[in-house]
Structures are given as C-alpha cells and as structure tokens.
Amino acid sequence: MRYTFLLYTDPADLAHMTPEDWAAEKEVYGAYIGALNAAGVFVDTDWLQPVTTATTLTLKGGTQVVQDGPFADTKETLGGYFVIDVPDLDAALAWARKCPAAKTGKVEIRATAMGAE
Q1: What is the value of pTM for the model shown?
Q2: What does the pLDDT look like over 55-68, one tens digit per residue?
Q3: YCII-related domain: from which residue to which, for each copy (predicted)?
C-alpha cells in the first residue's frame, strides 16, 4: 500500500536558519531517504519552494481565477512530501515517526486512493 507523507512546517520556525543549518538539515533528510531506500519502501519525494512562490488556480463555476499565494492562509504550510510503499498504516506510522519533519512540524499520512477498491 502506498502512503504519502505531507510535511507541514511553520515558516517562522525556519526563518532563523543559516546556510549551515540548511546544509545540516539536508544531511538529516538524506539519511532518512537512505534508510527508506535501504528498507525498500522509498517511492518518491520532493522539497517544495516556499509558500510565498505559490500560485493557485480554480475553474470552479466555469471561470478561471488565478491567485498569487497558497490556497489557504495558514500558519503551517506544505513544504514537501514523501511517498512510501509499506504493508499497512502501522508501518507507515513507524516511518512517519522517523521523518525529520515530525520533530519540527507535522506529518500528515494519507493512503493512496489509486487502485483502492
């Protein structure tokens, strides 16, 4: 079963980070990706640009509306994701607990709907 981890963080918590802090953070995430790969559960990941670069589009009501910024104005923003393939939610939770984002923000875990019956 595939699970996606949506990684949420408050950008204010990252504002103080130096280039050295970011380099260390990348190493921590690199080690996590390495562990996922070694376990044979890694599918995909991406780190997103800051929410300030977001553009939102809707065609609701038949009219295109393009908005600068995110869909929702929230304190915590989506910063990236992981997709893993594990047997069940318990295994997904075990990997989510190891995710570096869980220590500074939140990890939302969602099972895939593709192929679900």
Answers
A1: 0.86
A2: 989 899 999 999 88
A3: 1-110
